[in-house]
Design brief:
alpha/beta, seven-stranded mixed β-sheet, five-stranded antiparallel β-sheet, 27 helices
């Protein structure tokens, strides 16, 4: 406050003092300018007039030959302080007489010696030249040149300046005194007000300003006193109110505290209810998955046996349907994760056509059971090799197609996949993100406009009445909406009541390109040879359903065929007016007697291969009656299944599988490090079959010593080993052995949590390989990382042979066998003897494992138990012991999660592990040999 008052006082003084300063300086300046001009004009007038007079006198004295008088006159002129020097020159400019200092050299003397008075002036002198005219002849006989100095004038100017400064200073002093007087009259009341305000700020509301009627601010002071009276009154009221509010606030805080306790209890109850719900969902999921896993497992066993193409399609459909049902069981769990924000997508390279055709095959039995036609169209400009979460995309498609079939009583369900680029053509070579659009159209009951809005809400259904025909949880579309939004797309529908419905969704994806060529996802066939399978061949397509006919026509056209399409046999035969000889005839026998129709076609086109298009529900009853040379193709027809049938027909080898070739670098030096001899034996067998040089080590110390002696092209390193583990061994190999600083080292372990993978890569490993290690994964890893390839060889993927039925030991017939010999054979690259040998080796070490585990548990040795569980886990993943593998995996996960042996779940799993080892010990390999004999 004091600083502001000081500044205010200074401003008042400045405002009062500033006009005096300005006026004084202005008047002094005007006076000085006028005075200086006056002195300059006086000197100039004096010089001109006096020089002219002196020249007249000099003209009278110049005729006297003796110049004493003239010299005396000139000398007398110097008595004038303004005259510096005088000189008399003749008409030629020669000096006759001179008095005083030398004339100022102006450089303009010749211009001054002209008729009439001439003068020159600068800052120091005024030089005046007057002609001397003879009184008798009126001729110019000479010139009188006089220098007038400014020195005396300047002195007078300085005196005037000093006088002006004195006068101005006195005026300013008077103005300052007046300003101080006026300023104090204003600032003194303000200072009193400031002190009063400071006291009020400190809480003294009884302070008042003095009542002084003579003050310049009397009215303001009176107003402030009135305001202070009001403030004091309001302060007293506010104080009483605050006291009252404090009492009320205290009561409110006590109430809130009670409510917080109640809310905390309610929160704990909600968390407990949520935990109970999660446990219930997990248990329910487990109980339902158990029989499904049996269905899936035995379906896989049947698929690896020798089957007819039709049987293979049936079993494949069972397996895919089971997988679809298993996936759909996750809906409610997905919704729980969705609510918690933990539903995360996993984009992977997939084949879009494979996904669509799998879903269509899975949903076909339900559709054909209701006499519905189900077809799909994948437009030609749609890229098939993309990167997306294939499982979630299949989940969305399954849900939409299932709903379409559920609410459609007659007609068809059509799935269309197309680009959604808003009119802009997609440039594939730019590899930009693209948007695909999938629509599912049906001819069902349709939906009203009011039903559109609530359809994608959780637990909402179009018909929620008790008399509705179709059930459901109401979660499917809600989950689909969340998944589509995570994929960067939208979902919607177009429908009117009684007009069917079209559900559509879009999603963003990218091409799965590698070096400019589309990479192939697992299970997706290359299409390089697709246009040549039926190139130039003539095909007759007889299909009564228009959409199905259009869909199959599109697929045949994609394979390069010349197609004639008809709705019936009669129409197809009448359309052949030029007696074309067809190579293939595709016929749907729904509305005809199959044998009679095929016989009629065979009689007309004896060289044509007839393929019957049949729905799932009637093929089995029809096959025995079909003539020889007739093939069947299940609907809905997919491109991959159609190509497989044509390839089988062309090669005439029933059930022959077409395998992709892979390449591997030959003549490589490979080191495998693992403390489990079973794992080492499996790797040695796999790589030995590929002609590779493999050396093995059982711990990190031996691996380091081998790396000092030999140079390897690639190293497969187990992580958990005795003596020196894989992490430490890798670090020492990198730092201590120069020739192995850049050697690829691949981490191989049976179990790793996601955060452990990051630790492995940061510890010096180049990549990560999870057990069980298959031949395919080993080939891929070697081709990716092995250095200095010297030769390329070709290798075909292994296809398991037919497996005979196996009867287990009688004691184990009543429960699940601890050994799956078919799985063991597959893990041993199809070598049954190797599988049996690894089982024997594993059984021989189980007694030692039991002793180590029990001793470690009794001593509460967490590290020893974890190390032995991890080692046992790695071994069992190569030996086809699914029960033991599951228990080891769960126990190792919980050991790493809880970091202790004292947890209830860890103890429970440990006891299960001991029981599983005991069961495996009791299993007799001789029973396997007896069954085989």
């Amino acid at each position: 406050m004091k600083q502001h008052l000081t500044a205010f006082r200074q401003r008042i003084l400045l405002l009062a003092f500033l006009p005096g300063i300005v006026v004084s300086l202005l008047m002094g300046g005007v006076y000085l300018v006028k005075r200086y001009q006056e002195l300059d004009n006086q000197l100039m007038a004096k010089a001109l007039i006096q020089s002219e007079r002196q020249a007249a006198v000099a003209s009278l004295l110049l005729d006297n030959p003796r110049h004493e008088e003239l010299q005396a006159l000139i000398s007398m002129l110097l008595d004038d302080r303004d005259i510096r020097a005088v000189s008399l020159v003749d008409e030629q400019g020669r000096e006759i007489l001179h008095a005083g200092p030398k004339l100022t050299a102006t450089g303009n003397l010749s211009s001054l010696l002209e008729p009439g008075q001439r003068w020159f002036r600068n800052d120091q002198v005024i030089q005046v030249a007057d002609p001397i005219i003879s009184p008798d002849t009126t001729k110019i006989t000479g010139w009188l040149i006089t220098d007038y100095a400014y020195a005396e004038t300047h002195l007078t100017q300085f005196r005037s300046l000093a006088f002006s400064i004195i006068v101005v200073s006195m005026g300013l002093l008077v103005a300052l005194i007046i300003s101080l007087k006026l300023g104090s009259g204003v600032t003194r009341p303000l200072d009193r007000m400031a002190r009063v305000i400071d006291r009020i700020k400190d809480g003294f509301f009884d302070t008042r300003l003095p009542d002084n009627p003579g003050s310049l601010m009397y009215e303001l002071e009176s107003s402030i006193n009135i305001m202070l009276n009001g403030l004091q009154s309001k302060h007293q009221k506010m104080t009483s109110h605050i006291a009252q509010y404090n009492d009320e606030l205290q009561e409110t805080l006590e109430t809130i505290e009670i409510q917080n306790v109640e809310l905390d209890l309610a929160r704990k109850e909600a968390l407990e209810a949520s935990r109970s719900k999660s446990e219930f969902l997990a248990n329910m999921s487990h109980e339902i998955r158990t029989p499904l896993n049996g269905i899936i497992g035995f379906s896989n066993l049947m698929l690896s046996s020798r089957l007819t193409p039709q049987q293979y399609d049936y079993v494949s459909t069972i397996e895919k349907s089971s997988q679809g049902l298993l996936t759909m069981l996750n809906d409610i769990l997905d919704f729980s994760r969705m609510e918690a924000g933990k539903l995360v997508l996993d984009p992977q390279p997939v084949c879009l056509r494979e996904i669509v055709e799998d879903v269509m095959t899975f949903m076909a039995p339900v559709a054909y059971g209701k006499s519905l036609e189900i077809v799909h169209f994948i437009y030609d400009d749609v890229p098939e090799h993309i990167i997306i979460d294939g499982l979630r995309l299949k989940q969305i498609l399954t849900n939409l197609i299932s709903n379409a079939i559920k609410f459609t009583s007659y007609g068809s369900v059509a799935v269309r996949v197309m680009l959604d680029q808003e009119g802009k053509p997609y440039q594939q070579e730019r590899n930009e993100p693209l948007t695909l659009r999938v629509s599912v159209a049906d001819t069902g009951i349709g939906l009203t406009r009011e039903q559109h809005h609530k359809l994608f809400q959780a637990f909402s259904q179009a018909d929620s009445s008790k008399t509705r025909k179709s059930g459901g949880t109401g979660l499917g579309l809600s989950i689909c909406k969340n998944l589509v939004e995570q994929m960067g797309g939208e979902i919607g529908l177009e429908s009117d009541l009684g007009q069917g419905a079209t559900f559509w969704f879009t999603f963003k994806t990218t091409l799965n390109n590698k070096n400019g060529e589309p990479a192939v996802a697992d299970g997706c066939e290359q299409e390089d040879l697709a246009p040549t399978l039926l190139h130039g061949q003539k095909v007759l397509l007889i299909e009564t359903h228009e959409l199905t006919r259009l869909s199959i026509f599109h697929l045949l056209d994609k394979l390069g065929a010349n197609i004639t399409a008809a709705a019936s046999i009669q129409q197809g035969m009448s359309a052949n007016k030029t007696n074309i000889s067809y190579d293939y005839i595709f016929i749907n026998p729904d509305n005809i007697e199959p044998v009679q129709g095929i016989t009629q076609l065979t009689a007309s086109y004896s060289n044509a291969r007839i393929i019957v298009l049949s729905s799932t529900g009637i093929t089995g009853a029809m096959d025995p009656a079909l003539p020889d040379g007739t093939d069947t193709l299940l609907k809905p027809v997919g491109l991959n299944r159609l190509k497989a049938l044509l390839a089988r027909i062309n090669t005439d080898q029933e059930g022959k599988e077409i395998h992709h070739q892979q390449q591997i670098n030959k003549s490589l030096s490979i080191l495998a490090v693992d403390d489990n001899p079973v794992n080492l034996k499996l790797l040695k067998t796999i790589l030995g079959n590929l002609g590779q040089d493999l050396q093995t080590a059982e711990n990190g110390f031996d691996a380091i010593e081998l790396c000092r002696q030999f140079t390897f092209d690639i190293i497969f390193m187990d992580v958990h080993m005795p003596v020196i583990d894989g992490l430490e061994a890798t670090k020492r190999i990198r730092s201590e052995i120069p020739n192995h600083q850049r050697t690829p080292i691949i981490a191989v372990t049976a179990h790793a949590l996601p955060e452990e993978k990051k630790v492995l890569l940061q510890s010096g490993f180049d990549d990560y390989l999870s057990k069980p290690v298959s031949e395919k994964h080993v080939i891929s890893m070697i081709n990716q990382w092995a250095k200095n390839p010297t030769e390329i060889i070709e290798h075909r993927e292994y296809c398991p042979p037919s497996k005979p039925g196996i009867s287990l030991h009688p004691a184990m017939d009543q429960q699940e066998s601890p050994v799956d010999i078919n799985l063991a054979t597959q893990l041993a690259a199809g070598n049954r003897e190797l599988a049996q040998e690894m089982l024997v080796m594993m059984k021989e070490g189980l007694d030692d494992d039991l002793v180590t585990l029990r001793d470690g548990w009794a001593a509460n040795n967490y590290s020893a138990v974890l190390e032995r569980v991890h080692r046992l886990h790695g071994a069992c993943r190569y030996c086809g012991v699914p029960e033991l593998e599951r228990i080891c995996n769960r126990l190792e996960t919980r050991l790493k999660k809880y970091n202790t042996l004292d947890h209830n779940k860890v103890s429970e799993d440990f006891q299960l592990l001991l029981q599983s080892i005991t069961r495996l010990n009791q299993w007799e390999i001789e029973s396997l040999e007896t069954a085989e004999s």
